[in-house]
Structure formats: structure tokens, C-alpha cells
Design goal:
The structure is a single chain. This protein has 2 domains: 142 residues, NAD(P)-binding Rossmann-like Domain (Rossmann fold), CATH 3.40.50; 89 residues. Helix content is 56%, strand content 13%. It is built from 12 helices and 7 strands.
Length: 280
């Protein structure tokens, strides 16, 4: 990949929503972008053989297969990246090539209008500092925030950031369905803060279920987090039902101390969200 902003970027899966989003990002940076998809004449092999930067933007469960198919076409002068929500196995597969390797995880969906203040996690596998900075600079030029880490640390954290939060969100949806209560029925009783919480449930359920199944089922660190969550739910339930009211206060205080200053920060942030909702 040339050490300048002008390069040929090939996106495998570039006709999908996320692929189109990043196509625009690289085009605005002054690069030539070519895309392959299920119905394009351009193939993944064409992309791999003729691009300075190869970007993989396909579903998680086919990512390894796609990478293996194009590995023979890649050379030392190229960089290969992926946009998968997991990083250990894609980076491992990409390292089987001769190319430089940089794992990427956009912490947002394709519906965002801009990368401004959006987080992109970068997990370098094998690359020059020059090419790493060039890639990061492209994203920062659009206002993105960059977090650099290892593939292993990424997947461990995603077990919490995605695994735990999505598990809790899905459990809330499943509970409401089982007790026969719809979001519409709760609306007259909700304040804005509760609308935010149930809104996050609805937001998740409006997404692609295959994507969420992949990110939860294919992350090897998720099961341990879910087990801890199940144990926590059991303990919280016992505390709530206990005749000793002091147990609840103790549990509440322990967790408040654990979250520390984030409690105050979150209060300010959610107050701003509530104010925006009220004005709307």
C-alpha cells in the first residue's frame, strides 16, 4: 500500500450497507474504490489481486472462508482489513497471507449518518507504522474516535460490551413477551428515561438477528460472562425478595462504588438525552 492518501481500495461485500458506508469514507479521502458483492461481475479474487487495501465486509460466520479464499492472491505490498465484530479469528486467518494485517471493528451500524464521535477499534496484526497511521488518519478525518488494542483484549471486552448488554436487552424483550405486555401498553406509564431503556430494546430488535447471533455465539469469552450474569440475576432476585431490607441497600452501594464517577457522568448524560426528548 502506498504511503500516501491515494490508493486503490477494494471492498469485498462492498454492496452491503456497511460496505457502502465505508466506500464513501474512502472515496471522500481521495481514493479509488471498487466493490464486489453477490451480484457483481467483480469477484473477491479480483479485489484481492488488484487493490492496495483489501477490506472484508461480510457476515461474521463467512468471514474466515472469504479470507481463506483470497489469501493466495495477496502480496507483501498490500494491506488486508476486516470489519468483523470479533477479532481473534479474522486476524489469525488474515495473518496466513503475505499482506500487512489490520483488524477493524466499527462500534456502530450502517445507519449512522456520519463517523463523527463514532468509535472504531483497531487491532494491528502485522503492519508498518506508516500504513497504520494512514488508515487511522482516514477515519479520524471523518471525526471517528480510535481505540487501539489486541485481538484478544478486544474479544474479551466485547463479551461485556456486546455479549452482556445484548443478553440483558434480549432478556428484557423475552420477559415482556412472556408476561404478555407490549411496549405500546407501557407507553402511557413511562417517563422519558424508561422510554430510553425500552427504546434500546426496540432498536436491537430492529436489527439483523443473524448478526447478533454471530457476535454472541462465536465469541468464546461470552459464555463465562453470561454465567456470571445468570448468577448475578439470581442473587439480585434473592436480595429483592429478602425480608432483610438492608441487603438491598448493601448491594446497591457496592455497585455504586464499583461504577464510581461514571454514575455522575451517566446522570448528566441521560439528563441531556431526556431534555432533548422533551424538546422533541
Amino acid at each position: 500500500m502506498p504511503g500516501s492518501a491515494a490508493m486503490k481500495v477494494g471492498i469485498i461485500g462492498g454492496t452491503g450497507r456497511m460496505g457502502r458506508l465505508f466506500s464513501g469514507v474512502f472515496e471522500r479521502a481521495g481514493n479509488e474504490v471498487i466493490c464486489s458483492g453477490r451480484n457483481t461481475q467483480i469477484t473477491a479474487a479480483d479485489i484481492a489481486a488488484g487493490s492496495d487495501l483489501v477490506l472484508i465486509s461480510v457476515p461474521i460466520h463467512v468471514t474466515a472462508e472469504v479470507i481463506r479464499d483470497i489469501v493466495p492472491y495477496l502480496t507483501e505490498s498490500q494491506v488486508i482489513c476486516d470489519l468483523t465484530s470479533l477479532k481473534v479469528f479474522p486476524v489469525r486467518e488474515m495473518l496466513c497471507s503475505k499482506a500487512e494485517v489490520i483488524g477493524l471493528h466499527p462500534m456502530f451500524g450502517p445507519s449512522v449518518r456520519t463517523l463523527e464521535q463514532q468509535t472504531i477499534i483497531v487491532t494491528p496484526g502485522r503492519c508498518s507504522q506508516e500504513n497504520l497511521e494512514l488508515l487511522i488518519g482516514t477515519f479520524e478525518g471523518e471525526g471517528a474516535r480510535i481505540t487501539i488494542t489486541t485481538p484478544e483484549a478486544h474479544d474479551r471486552m466485547m463479551a461485556v460490551v456486546q455479549g452482556l448488554t445484548h443478553f440483558v436487552t434480549l432478556s428484557m424483550a423475552e420477559t415482556m413477551r412472556r408476561i404478555g405486555v407490549t411496549p405500546a401498553e407501557t407507553q402511557p406509564f413511562m417517563s422519558p428515561v424508561y422510554q430510553i431503556e425500552t427504546g434500546l430494546v426496540g432498536r436491537l430488535l430492529s436489527q439483523d438477528p443473524v448478526l447478533y447471533a454471530d457476535m454472541l455465539r462465536m465469541n468464546p469469552y461470552v459464555p463465562a460472562v453470561l454465567e456470571a450474569c445468570e448468577n448475578a440475576v439470581s442473587d439480585v432476585r434473592s436480595t429483592i425478595l429478602s425480608v432483610d431490607s438492608g441487603l438491598f441497600e448493601q448491594m446497591f452501594t457496592r455497585n455504586s462504588k464499583h461504577f464510581g464517577d461514571y454514575c455522575t457522568t451517566s446522570l448528566s448524560l441521560t439528563d441531556s438525552l431526556i431534555e432533548a426528548m422533551v424538546k422533541r
